[in-house]
């Protein structure tokens, strides 16, 4: 079953999918990332309630968000050339990981930013 709700980040909308395992184990809620959005999840494999930002928005510090130093997975559903960079420092410094439009990373642990993202830079600069 799917539900739609408006996220706290303005007009952004995400959908919830309730997944029930065949074994009868505890159900998992997956929050999908909508078109034109960047979603940072507090759990690996896109689990938990994400921090949602429109890819067309400006960059932002994650310092006062639930995902500060809890950046476990990310989806960039931005359109055009909007890349998303997650930085370890709250003012866009230190190591970072860049996600191309349409890109996703299920577990940031093996990447430069790791799971300690503290700022999100959105722009048209290419990754690399």
Written description of the protein model:
The model is unreliable at 1-21 (pLDDT under 50). The strands form three sheets. Strands 5-4-7-10 form a four-stranded antiparallel beta sheet, with no helix packed on it. A four-stranded antiparallel beta sheet has the order 6-11-8-9, with no helix packed on it. Strands 1-2-3 form a three-stranded antiparallel beta sheet, with no helix packed on it. With 128 residues, it is mainly β. It is globular and about 30 Å long. Strand 8 (83-87) and strand 9 (96-99) form a beta hairpin. It contains no helices and eleven strands.
Q: How would you summarize this macromolecular structure in one to three sentences?
A:
With 128 residues, this protein is mostly beta strands. The chain contains no helices and eleven strands. The chain has one domain: Sandwich (Gamma-B Crystallin, domain 1).
Kindly list the characteristics that best describe this protein.
128 residues, mainly beta, Gamma-B Crystallin, domain 1, globular, disordered N terminus
CATH class: Mainly Beta
The percent range for strand residues is 35-45%
Kindly report the average pLDDT value. 84
Q: Going by CATH, what is the homologous superfamily?
A: Crystallins
Helix content: under 10%
Our measurement of the CA-to-CA distance between the termini, rounded to an integer number of angstroms, reads: 39 Å
**Total of DSSP H or I helical runs spanning 4+ residues:** 0
Strand sequence of the main sheet, in spatial order? 5-4-7-10
Taking all Cα atoms into account, the compactness measure Rg is 14 Å
How many β-strand stretches?
11
């Amino acid at each position: 079953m799917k539900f739609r709700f408006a996220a706290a980040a303005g007009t952004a909308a995400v959908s919830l999918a309730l997944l029930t395992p065949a074994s009868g184990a505890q159900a998992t809620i997956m929050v999908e990332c909508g078109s034109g959005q960047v979603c940072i999840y507090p759990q690996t494999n896109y689990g938990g309630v994400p921090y949602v930002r429109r890819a067309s928005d400006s960059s932002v510090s994650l310092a006062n968000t639930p995902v500060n130093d809890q950046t476990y997975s990310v989806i960039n559903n931005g359109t055009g050339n909007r890349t998303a960079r997650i930085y370890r420092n709250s003012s866009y410094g230190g190591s970072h990981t860049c996600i191309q439009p349409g890109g996703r990373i299920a577990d940031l642990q093996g990447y430069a930013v790791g799971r300690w993202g503290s700022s999100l830079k959105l722009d048209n600069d290419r990754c690399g």
